Fold this protein.
Amino acid sequence: MVDHLTKEKRSWNMSRIRSKNTKPELALRSMLHNMGYRFRLNGKVSKRLHPKGILPGKPDIVLAKYRTVIFVHGCFWHHHNGCKGATVPKTRTEWWLAKFARNVERDKKNLNELQRLNWNVITIWECELKNPDNIRARITAELPRLETLHYIQPPVEIPIAAEEHDSYKSTNQL
């Protein structure tokens, strides 16, 4: 099948496809914010969490408090296996298949690198956002509980000497 658009018009169309602030990302960010989570965008973290200040693969959402990142993948671009949105264009099929294979390989590499750095990784597919209740339940289930994270110290009780404790009582009773 031949492309019905000119090369210039096709290039213009493709240049309008955003990589940040997509509708699925905005929907998930709104959902997370309404659930009470606070986050950073596009892989940005403090230098104490990563020396470069940006995580591998530039995750769409970073929940540093939970040491968790969320990728919002488009079914077409990241070739969601078994999804009807993961179509292959009829023109330049070989090129598109190679492109999708590179995207999937890069996603696997980024996932492995983040896991090696002890980050929890959640991938949300564009088609999954059609059911927000399932996404809310999944996020709640997958985010680790704060007390189980290894880098957060439990509160330490400081013992008060008996003499100090007694004198505190006597001054307050006056």
